[in-house]
Design brief:
InterPro entries: Adenyl_kin_sub (IPR006259), Adenylat/UMP-CMP_kin (IPR000850), Adenylat_kinase_CS (IPR033690), P-loop_NTPase (IPR027417). 52% of the residues lie in helices and 16% in strands. With 210 residues, it is an alpha/beta fold. The protein has a 5-stranded parallel sheet, with helices on both faces. Strands 6-5-7 form a 3-stranded antiparallel sheet. It is globular, with a radius of gyration of 17 Å. The structure holds adenosine-5'-diphosphate and adenosine monophosphate (AMP).
Length: 210
């Protein structure tokens, strides 16, 4: 299964990608995680990438498509994968089409802006596990040590405004483009209410994939 997760920042793509990865043993390709790894390793371009992410802008299509291409060629993509946060622009979607990689499922998570802001402000990432949590989530008080977690450097109210503008400017047109393509090519495109509980969204996705 080749799966793409779409949605605004904070809509729950990473959370659902973690679930699908564990449940279906599919490799997860999260572009945001790959970019943050490049920054942490001080790799070439890391300064440029950090300042672009810090300003809430999208990284150029050239850099991102090259990265995805290098990751996808490392795995046997016929066995499937989850793309979390790619494509985000029409030009990125065309890179997938040009490489003749067919996508089996698109899941678009929809949530209103006011919930996005709350989720982004309370998102934390485990230092060791790299998993994502919400500060109010009961999982924090149960079995995960959330004191050993950090807040992403781009998760603040000012930056999120620009990230949402970028989403409206580039990703909404992509979603319209995909929906038009769906009618022609018969993609399976599902819109999911992202305001449901994590568990309910897991179940909805599971039902579709099963
Ligand atoms: P994205 O990858 O789309 O930016 P995340 O998966 O990182 O979003 O989720 C953003 C924040 O919201 C995280 O703190 C996560 O734990 C929390 N979250 C994700 N899905 C839900 C949900 N359905 N209900 C409540 N909180 C959620
Ligand atoms: P995310 O972890 O998905 O929230 O992404 C964090 C940041 O990484 C975004 O705000 C962008 O700056 C950058 N990024 C992630 N995915 C892409 C993409 N497909 N195209 C361009 N920039 C991206």
């Amino acid at each position: 299964m080749r799966i793409v997760l779409l949605g605004a920042p904070g809509s729950g793509k990473g959370t659902q990608a973690q679930f699908i990865e564990q449940k279906y043993h599919l490799p997860k390709i999260s572009i945001g995680d790959i970019l943050r790894q490049i920054i942490n390793n001080n790799a070439p371009l890391s300064k440029q990438i950090k300042s672009t992410i810090y300003n809430g802008k999208l990284i150029s299509d050239e850099i991102v498509t090259e990265l995805v291409q290098s990751y996808i060629t490392k795995i046997d993509y016929n066995l499937g994968f989850i793309l979390d946060g790619f494509p985000r622009t029409i030009s990125q979607a065309k890179m997938i089409e040009n490489n003749k990689i067919s996508i089996d499922y698109f899941f678009e998570l929809k949530i209103p802006t006011k919930i996005i802001l709350e989720r982004i402000q309370k998102r934390r990432t485990g230092v060791v596990s790299k998993n994502t949590y919400h500060l109010n989530n009961s999982i924090c008080s149960k079995n995960i040590n959330c004191t050993n977690s950090i807040q992403r450097f781009d998760d603040n109210t000012e930056v999120i405004k620009t990230r949402l503008e970028e989403y409206n400017k580039f990703t909404i047109p992509l979603i319209n483009y995909l929906n038009n393509s769906c009618k022609k090519i018969n993609y399976r495109y599902y819109i999911i209410d992202g305001t449901q509980t994590i568990q309910n969204i897991n179940n909805e996705i599971k039902k579709i994939l099963n």
